[in-house]
Design brief:
Elements lengths: L1 H11 L5 E5 L3 H9 L7 H12 L8 E6 L1 H4 L9 H7 L3 E5 L4 E3 L7 E3 L5 H10 L4 E8 L8 H20 L3 E8 L7 H21 L8 E2 L16 H15 L6 E4 L6 H12 L7 E6 L1 H11 L6 H18 L14
Parallel strand pairs: 1-2, 1-10, 2-3, 3-6, 6-7, 7-8, 8-9, 9-10
Antiparallel strand pairs: 4-5
Helix pairs in contact: 7-8, 8-9, 9-10, 10-11, 10-12, 11-12
Length: 339
């Protein structure tokens, strides 16, 4: 089991590569498709995710892909199962396993993620379809009083239980505590909440005997709320984020793959690059982006078969830029260059 987990971690944590988050739930992908006036039918979802995975050379910059459950059982146009197609590209298939967020009882404004019931059995089925890692997202709303201590503790406990179940089944867990960007809070408030969240998450992981060497962390960056008057430069984001990570994340964790969390594609890339320009850290610092990789793809595709190649070019370009950022080698001028 340990050998299996280590092999998956090694495959995911590769220099110059990151993870594509293509695990949008039904309602979320419907919103993305609505932006390009496309119905969210099963066939359209299959065609889109097939487009992502058949992108030539994608494995040069992507080490893994997170699927939604539906995608795990879908096939490419030629009948090849999508997880098998990803693996053939050198991209490790993974699976989102949480069942979404609901209000936390007696804690107004806070949320809790559900989905632990039956998780071990579901993981066994996902493994049969090729999934080697999993992801569970907890969300934390931020205000002067949120998240409450109850929310911080309850979500940490759920993340740790999920991670322990994954490792028991030979699946590498990605632990995703997302401190939301929504609101007008300051960067300092985001840092305070992120530090409290990560401290509690790692306390819970160790309490549940999760092997830190066989997991990945997918945190949000420390940024001001998106409606705050004073936004931050990449250098400021990098310094504040790294300060919190060094205070909270044990060196045993092999990789930190940031979520984009509502940042624009260029912002997410520039901020990741700034983090990697601060020198070597105990963990690799890379990406696990959804919208920041996919928005340009959707805009290029527009649901049209004739636009598949330009859409794939857009994915490859963003993956290449983020690969460069994961090594501190990104330049803004690269945005205008062709893939």
């Amino acid at each position: 089991m340990t050998t299996e987990l280590q092999a998956t971690v090694d495959a995911l944590v590769q220099k110059g590569k990151g993870i594509l988050a293509a695990d949008e739930s039904g309602p979320t992908i419907a919103k993305r498709f609505q932006a390009i006036a496309l119905d969210s039918t099963e066939e359209n979802r299959r065609a889109y995710r097939s487009l992502l995975l058949t992108t030539p050379q994608a494995g040069r910059y992507l080490s893994g892909v997170i699927f939604y459950e539906e995608t795990l059982t879908q096939n490419a146009d030629d009948g090849e199962p999508l997880p098998q197609l990803a693996a053939r590209q050198g991209i490790v298939p993974g699976i989102k396993v949480d069942a979404g967020k609901i209000p936390l009882a007696l804690s107004p404004g806070d949320e809790i993620t559900q989905g632990l019931d039956g998780l071990a059995e579901r993981l066994q089925g996902y493994k049969q379809h090729g999934a080697r890692f999993a992801k569970w997202r907890a969300v934390y709303n931020v205000s002067a009083t949120l998240p409450s201590r109850a929310a911080v503790e309850a979500n940490a406990e759920a993340l740790a239980r999920y991670a322990a179940i994954c490792q028991a089944e030979g699946v590498v867990p990605i632990v995703e505590p997302e401190v939301l960007i929504d609101g007008g809070h300051t960067m300092a408030r985001c840092a305070e909440v992120t530090q409290a969240v990560l401290q509690e998450v790692f306390r819970a992981l160790q309490r549940h005997r999760v092997a830190l060497e066989h997991m990945l962390l997918k945190p949000s960056m420390v940024v001001p709320g998106k409606t705050h008057a004073q936004q931050a430069s990449p250098a400021e984001v990098a310094a504040a984020t790294l300060r919190v990570l060094r205070r909270t994340v044990p060196a045993a964790v092999p990789g930190i793959n940031f979520l984009s969390g509502g940042q624009s594609p260029a912002e997410a890339t520039a901020n990741l690059d700034a983090l990697n320009r601060l020198g070597a850290q105990p963990w690799s610092l890379s990406f696990s982006y959804g919208r920041a990789l996919q928005d340009p793809v959707l805009q290029a595709w527009q649901g049209k078969a004739a636009q598949v190649r330009p859409a794939q070019d857009a994915l490859l370009q963003r993956a290449r830029l983020n690969g460069a950022a994961s090594e501190g080698k990104y330049e803004a001028a690269m945005e205008a260059a062709s893939a």
